[in-house]
Design the sequence.
């Protein structure tokens, strides 16, 4: 019978050095705490990571639109008649007041979204306590921050529509000039993303009526609130671009 | 199977390399000043890449045969790599690749960073679906205005470009469907396109440049040998892309002057 | 989108939940793979018609009849688009990656199984929309897979440029969204679902490749989406993002001031990372298989990881090398060319390391290994024509010629495909519980290797001689006539090679039902997929989560009982 030395040179702590181990979790990587109760903390973190990654791709869409905007603004085109390059960028007369009102609406909605997020976080934290028989924490007042956010979001979107009508009245349509094309495009792409956010908020609001577990609902509201804040900051960027880089 | 792989890989390498070295199908004869520079840089690149190609494929073929499981080799060398070796071959590769690029860059710079010299022949080349037009500015040396609304290819060459006859500078402009150039004189080319992107490619001159709508791109080159050279369109421009060709006639200075005078006379 | 519960229970029942709208990454991976298989045969058929037309322009072909010049360009456009998106961006990443990434890192599924299912069906819809372009009035677009404006932005620039082009753009936009969903899933999974002991530096190189590919996709596809939206607006709503004042067939179009170069910048900012998306998974598979079948650790694991990262990063700053002739600033061209030469360096490192893995090894020549070796050879060949094109001054004679076509086909059209073949033969036993036929595999390999070299190596000679690309026929230029024999040779080689692919398909489907039964670890490999049952159960590991003790390439460890040590083996020595 051959004898082997009891020690072999298989690196134990990772190949050529360790590196950080994966996030520690209680038992297995399947979101299970072992007692049949899904690990909501882990799920929340996972969905937040997913959101951050997803928002990177949204950022790239707006990075490419921004660079197209800036380059196009500075780009001359060859004019047959004068046989020289001419600049043809016409600054758009933006309806500034309307846009400022819309910005305020979106700012408030970001605030209410954050309040909704914190509200449901508290509720989710207290849920296990509430379920202990005999414990009474009183009635949670539950101001409908989520619904207010939806209303404000819809208000912003209607305000953007009104701003578009005002632009048209001033003679700036989608194809009028390169600058007007970009204004409509940037606001439309942002608006589409915001509609997506509104739909998810509506889903979160509806689902609360269906008595699904609050921890699950909390994840939805949490992630959507972060998405909402991102949409607000993105709007500030777009507004600043259209106004200061006219 | 190791031996089979070696044979197949080495044969593929041999045949690929053979046709490069034998130059069975090769760059056409160069007839412009740029050709000498470009061909030299091309030769340098292909010799160096050729050596790497033969060495790498040769090594691959040899290794899979030599270290086949059935071969009489020692135990497998349990190794996770060799950092020193990695650093060495990384550095050498970087020097090779980047060095090669820098060597060719002065040619690019001389061709493209500077405009045409004084005394060059101005020609405007316009591409449209699916033909090339060439415009010479005439005695005043100025190209006249063109007007998109006036473009009408069925009414002759000048009309194809939409030459604005109310502009005095247009009166002596000559527009042809064939390009004539005097030998050994630099050409100051302006590239235009009317509808979509085309590309003016004359293989013998080692010349290629996209013609882009909305731009008037200046390029220069110097033909060095008289003869007739084909122009091919080198950017997909629609169903007639394959037949959007033209011809460059490089002639002596007197023949060029005679030809141009004849064209101007025809306009009267 | 909340992460799905995945305890150790039997999966969903019912045909629709199990095979159609499955949330199981293994089923989804196979769905992507078979979508790509259909797409590759469509793409090959299109290229066959193209090659035949190039040498017999007036021939009447069975099934399609006469191929007019515009038809040729439509075939060309759809060939490129279908192959790049629905084959090269689908099978290596979404196909094999979906199936094996979770298993190789010890996870029960992807991070977001519902999103995963949606991303497949979105891809499927994109494919249907793309194919629909063939059947509408005017047919498919003729502007090439690169879709340069204004050709692609004007509805009267040629046949197929009306509804066909709109469908093409729409399909691509849908594909962008599907890819972004997939990228999100892959990245979250790798960051958050690795099993205990599976550090990043213990992941198989396949996982690293899928990870970096996903990051590339995440950052690049959004830009393509923007580009496509702008193109749709120019085509249909009269904007002038890409179109300056142009006159088409004597008609002054209503656009002004737009920049055709804007499309090129946006497209190639996406397009260059895209070609790395196409090849990186193949590199991961090659590394995996070379190590496994050489019974030797991969040479320089860390260098391989850094090389993958460098390729990823540098891949974003070289896009201008597609635009040297475009009218772009020559100074920018110079900068892009330096970066392009730089990206050759990590590629070279990987090649050296693959060769180093074979040195003093004990090589087994089963079919997966043949394809891995073929991959290295093809990557060298295709890669070395890069330094020609990377130099702007050499790009002058070579741009838009057959040289470029040879270059990218050797890498994307052959090496990447060899990566897929390698992955198929390698993972087939785990997916279907049976072995593919070795003899058929060998025959397929030899014919395909020699055949593809015969098709694409000669294209370099054609390009040097000045043969332009995207020409439906070569009858109009005198200087091209002497190249016709070589063009004919390529077509004959293509016919033989395409025919040989049926050997693969027959082997694939026959073996699925009749192949000899496979053990759980027929290749004696070390990574996690080989520790589990064949095929893997619904949650991949049958209720328990694996714990990982070392890296993925512990072959021929001195003193170990066998010549391989599984990643889950704590001591590496079996008690006796």
Sequence:
């Amino acid at each position: 019978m051959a004898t082997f030395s009891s020690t072999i040179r298989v690196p134990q702590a990772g190949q050529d050095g360790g590196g950080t181990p994966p996030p520690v979790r209680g038992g297995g990587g399947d979101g299970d705490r072992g007692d049949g109760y899904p690990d909501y903390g882990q799920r929340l973190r996972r969905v937040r990571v997913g959101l951050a990654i997803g928002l990177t791709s949204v950022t790239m869409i707006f990075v490419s639109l921004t660079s197209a905007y800036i380059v196009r603004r500075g780009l001359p085109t060859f004019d047959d008649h004068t046989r020289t390059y001419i600049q043809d960028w016409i600054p758009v007369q933006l309806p500034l007041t309307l846009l400022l009102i819309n910005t305020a609406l979106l700012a408030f909605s970001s605030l209410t979204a954050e309040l909704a997020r914190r509200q449901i976080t508290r509720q989710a934290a207290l849920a296990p306590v509430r379920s202990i028989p005999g414990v009474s924490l009183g009635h949670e007042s539950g101001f409908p921050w989520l619904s207010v956010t939806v209303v404000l979001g819809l208000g912003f979107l209607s305000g953007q529509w009104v701003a578009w009508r005002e632009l048209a009245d001033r003679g700036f349509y989608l194809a009028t000039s390169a600058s007007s094309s970009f204004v409509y495009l940037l606001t439309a792409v942002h608006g589409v993303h915001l509609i997506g956010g509104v739909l998810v908020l509506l889903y979160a609001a509806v689902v609360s009526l269906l008595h699904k577990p609050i921890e699950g609902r909390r994840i939805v509201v949490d992630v959507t609130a972060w998405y909402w804040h991102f949409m607000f900051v993105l709007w500030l960027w777009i507004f600043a671009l259209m106004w200061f880089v006219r | 199977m190791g031996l089979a792989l070696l044979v197949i890989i080495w044969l593929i390498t041999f045949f690929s390399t053979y046709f490069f070295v034998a130059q069975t199908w090769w760059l056409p004869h160069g007839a412009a000043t740029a050709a000498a520079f470009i061909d030299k840089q091309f030769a340098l690149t292909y010799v160096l890449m050729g050596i790497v190609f033969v060495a790498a494929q040769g090594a691959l073929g040899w290794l899979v045969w030599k270290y086949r499981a059935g071969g009489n080799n020692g135990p497998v060398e349990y190794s996770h790599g060799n950092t020193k070796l990695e650093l060495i071959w990384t550095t050498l590769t970087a020097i090779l690749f980047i060095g090669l690029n820098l060597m060719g860059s002065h040619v690019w710079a001389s061709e493209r960073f500077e405009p045409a010299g004084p005394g060059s022949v101005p020609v405007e080349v316009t591409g449209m679906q699916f033909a090339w037009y060439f415009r010479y500015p005439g005695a005043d040396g100025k190209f006249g205005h063109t007007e998109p609304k006036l473009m009408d290819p069925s009414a002759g060459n000048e009309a194809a470009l939409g030459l604005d006859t109310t502009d005095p500078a247009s009166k002596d402009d000559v527009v042809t469907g064939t390009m004539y150039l005097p030998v050994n004189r630099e050409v100051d080319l302006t590239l235009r396109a009317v509808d979509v992107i085309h590309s003016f490619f004359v293989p013998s001159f080692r010349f290629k440049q996209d013609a882009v709508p909305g731009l008037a791109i200046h390029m220069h080159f110097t033909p060095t040998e008289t003869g007739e050279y084909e122009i091919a369109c080198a950017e997909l421009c629609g169903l007639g892309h394959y037949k959007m060709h033209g011809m460059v006639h490089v002639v002596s200075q007197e023949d060029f002057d005679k030809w141009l005078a004849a064209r101007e006379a025809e306009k009267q | 989108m909340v992460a799905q519960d995945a305890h150790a229970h039997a999966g969903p029942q019912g045909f629709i939940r199990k095979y159609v709208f499955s949330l199981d990454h293994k089923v989804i991976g196979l769905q992507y793979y078979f979508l790509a298989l259909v797409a590759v045969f469509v793409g090959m058929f299109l290229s066959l018609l193209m090659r035949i037309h190039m040498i017999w322009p007036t021939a009447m072909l069975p099934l399609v009849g006469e191929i007019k010049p515009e038809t040729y360009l439509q075939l060309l456009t759809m060939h490129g688009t279908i192959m790049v998106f629905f084959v090269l961006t689908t099978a290596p990443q979404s196909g094999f990656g979906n199936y094996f990434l979770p298993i190789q890192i010890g996870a029960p599924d992807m991070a977001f199984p519902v999103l995963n299912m949606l991303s497949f069906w979105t891809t499927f819809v994109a494919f249907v929309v793309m194919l629909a372009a063939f059947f509408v009035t005017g047919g498919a677009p003729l502007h090439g897979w690169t879709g340069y404006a204004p050709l692609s932005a004007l509805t009267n620039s040629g046949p197929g440029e009306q509804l066909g082009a709109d469908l093409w753009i729409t399909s691509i936009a849908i594909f962008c969204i599907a890819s972004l969903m997939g990228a999100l899933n892959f990245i979250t999974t790798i960051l958050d679902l690795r099993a205990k002991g599976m550090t990043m530096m213990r992941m198989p190189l396949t996982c690293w490749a899928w990870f970096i590919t996903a990051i590339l996709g995440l950052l690049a596809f959004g830009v393509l989406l923007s580009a496509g939206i702008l193109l749709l607006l120019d085509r249909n709503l009269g904007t002038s993002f890409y179109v300056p004042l142009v006159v088409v067939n004597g008609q002054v179009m209503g656009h002004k001031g737009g920049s055709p170069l804007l499309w090129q910048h946006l497209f190639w900012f996406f397009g260059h990372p895209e070609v790395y998306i196409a090849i990186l998974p193949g590199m991961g598979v090659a590394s995996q298989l070379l190590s496994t079948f050489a019974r030797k650790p991969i040479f320089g694991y860390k260098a391989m990881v850094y090389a993958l990262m460098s390729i990823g990063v540098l891949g974003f700053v070289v896009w201008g090398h597609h635009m040297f002739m475009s009218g772009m600033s020559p100074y920018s061209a110079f900068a892009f060319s330096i970066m392009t030469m730089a990206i050759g360096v990590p590629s070279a490192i990987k090649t050296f390391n693959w060769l180093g893995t074979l040195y003093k090894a004990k090589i087994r020549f089963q079919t997966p290994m043949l394809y891995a070796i073929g991959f290295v050879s093809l990557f060298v060949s295709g890669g070395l024509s890069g330094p020609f094109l990377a130099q702007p001054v050499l790009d002058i004679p070579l741009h838009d010629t057959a040289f470029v076509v040879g270059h990218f086909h050797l890498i994307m059209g052959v090496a990447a495909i060899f990566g897929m073949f390698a992955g198929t033969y390698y993972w087939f036993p785990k997916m279907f519980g049976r072995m593919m036929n070795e003899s058929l595999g060998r025959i397929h390999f030899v014919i395909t290797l020699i055949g593809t070299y015969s098709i694409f190596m000669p294209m370099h000679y054609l390009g040097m001689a000045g043969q332009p690309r995207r020409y439906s026929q070569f009858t109009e230029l005198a200087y091209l006539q002497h190249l016709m024999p070589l063009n004919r040779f390529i077509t004959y080689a293509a016919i033989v090679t395409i025919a040989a692919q049926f050997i693969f398909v027959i082997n694939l489907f026959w073996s699925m039902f009749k192949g000899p039964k496979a053990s759980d670890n027929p290749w004696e490999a070390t990574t996690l997929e080989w520790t589990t049952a064949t095929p893997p159960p619904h949650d991949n590991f049958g209720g328990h989560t694996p714990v990982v003790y070392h890296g993925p390439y512990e072959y021929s460890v001195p003193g170990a009982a066998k010549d391989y040590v599984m990643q889950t083996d704590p001591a590496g020595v079996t008690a006796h």
User: Anything to note?
Assistant: Helices of chain B lie at 2-21, 33-66, 83-112, 157-160, 253-267. The longest helix of chain B spans residues 33-66. Strands of chain B lie at 121-128, 131-136, 174-176, 179-182, 187-193, 198-202, 207-211, 217-221, 227-233, 245-251. The CA atoms of residues 45 and 100 of chain B lie 7 Å apart.
